[in-house]
Amino acid sequence: MAGKVIPIPPFDCVVFGGCGDLAERKLIPALYHRQCTGQFTEPSRIIGSSRSSITSEEYRHFAGQAIEAHVNREDVDSSQVRCFLERLSYIPVDVTSSNGWDKLKEEIEKTSVKVRAFYLAVSPALFGDIAMQLGANSLITPDTRIIVEKPIGRDLSTACVLNNRLGTFFSENQIFRIDHYLGKETVQNLMALRFANALYEPLWNSNHIDNVQITVAESVGLEGRAGYYEHAGALRDMVQNHLLQLLCLVAMEPSAFLDADAVRDEKLKVLRSLAPVNVHNVGEHTIRGQYLAGISAKVPVRSYLEDLGKKKSDTETFVALRTTIANWRWAHTPFYLRTGKRMAERVSEIAVTFKPIPHSIFGRDAGQIIANRLVIRLQPDEGVKQWLMVKDPGPGGMRLRHIPLDMSFASTFSGRNPDAYERLLMDVMRGNQTLFMRRDEVEAAWQWTDSILESWEKTQQPIYGYNAGTWGPPRAVSMIKRDRRVWSNLV
Ligand code: BG6
């Protein structure tokens, strides 16, 4: 089914780090796709910027190559590409000094376009300086927005410093903190599933749900980001943001309407209700792992230490943890989170397991009655499966089987599944912050993550090795087994 295209107002989008990896792989292709849908209103412009002193012509060449490399061949239309490249220009700016800002201002002020979006596709160390220069050069108008990527700090105090710095120049409704998981179609579908269907809501609580598992497993390793990753680790890189955002969407109360602050208020309540981890329970509730050499996607791969070129590292590439949400809805339902690099498969999913039936009327021959499970697959093969017990057809008495009611999005909806950045970029231009993290959410997530980081440090929590291409250290299995449960894909 083709989507309805709602045009966005004309915009100027300035991409700092315009020649970088994010711009090449995600931002340029996303903007190109949205132009092709006819969503842009003229005159909309994209201005690349970085330290490199290249010309606008050279930048257009770079963007053309990015489209060729990262857009599917069948979506590359030469007249669309030409039109897209015409809206591009390039201004070299050294964001750490005052060089280039006057030229950027001149370029921006060539038109009277109101919406200005400054995308900071650069190191977070530069966020504050750029915000300050934008202010000093009078580039911030009421319709100006700033877009920042994670990491927003590496703990609560550094996040507060960064948020304060941004807040000196921008008001909160101008700051768009990206968590690209929130732009994924299936993640938004989670809201549709919960709040556009009456079916699940009466069951959506600890009276009926036994446990929730959120897995974001990656088969890739460091992908050239060793420097960043070694200082972050899986907890900061994935749990503090993506996994906690997913947990919020599963656990939040329905907001009164789909308004940015109404939704984010509800998510914030969940974050603030997470039971803090402490030195007494950290060993029981969290497992850290680091990948060893192994076989991933049938290819032998090196260990984390070899990838890093170091003899020792205290950084986790895997984390599994158990948490609870201290409120009436969820008080007795554990949430298990798990993420890692170089795992057996690339799979992100949320598995909601319901309580078993209280009594079976079937005899032993019927087979085991397995509890219902709702599995929301975020990637790959996006879709939803509701696992149910049914009768095996045909003779042979009442034999029961556990099978899924399967709604694969690929087979239900035709057409391309848009990348998260497409939706998020258009929301920035519209000024819709629903899918962006508010300052208090980021800080509440850090507050809880800090309780784990501090407890790890104080207790010298060990890091267990796991072979690349597996589901993580065996201890992660023991952790959940202690609660008489198993990880959902290991059933
Ligand atoms: C990023 C992390 O935020 O998300 C990466 O920094 C990770 O380490 C990536 O690989 C995963 O995103 P996706 O969309 O590929 O699941």
Fold and architecture overview:
It contains 15 helices and 18 strands. With 491 residues, the chain is α/β, with parallel strands linked by helices. Strand 4, helix 5 and strand 5 form a beta-alpha-beta unit. It is globular. 6-O-phosphono-beta-D-glucopyranose is lined by residues 180, 218, 237, 348.
In brief, what are we looking at here?
The chain is an alpha/beta fold and 491 residues long. 36% of the residues lie in helices and 21% in strands. The strands form 3 sheets. The chain has a 9-stranded mixed sheet, with helices on both faces. Strands 3-2-1-4-5-6-17 form a 7-stranded mixed sheet, with helices on both faces.
Instruction: Sum up the overall morphology in one term.
Output: globular
Which strand order spans the largest sheet, edge to edge or round the barrel? Answer: 16-15-14-13-7-12-11-8-18
The whole-angstrom Rg is 24 Å
The total of beta strands comes to 18
Bound molecules: 6-O-phosphono-beta-D-glucopyranose
Low-confidence stretches: none
What is the mean predicted local confidence, pLDDT?
A: 94
Q: Major sheet, described briefly?
A: 9 strands, mixed
Straight-line distance between termini: 35 Å
DSSP strand content = 15-25%
- Output the number of helix runs: 15
What structural class is derived from the secondary structure elements?
Answer: alpha/beta
Secondary structure: helix percent: 25-40%
Question: What are the key terms here?
Answer:
491 residues; alpha/beta; 9-stranded mixed β-sheet; 7-stranded mixed β-sheet; 15 helices; 36% helix; globular; binds 6-O-phosphono-beta-D-glucopyranose
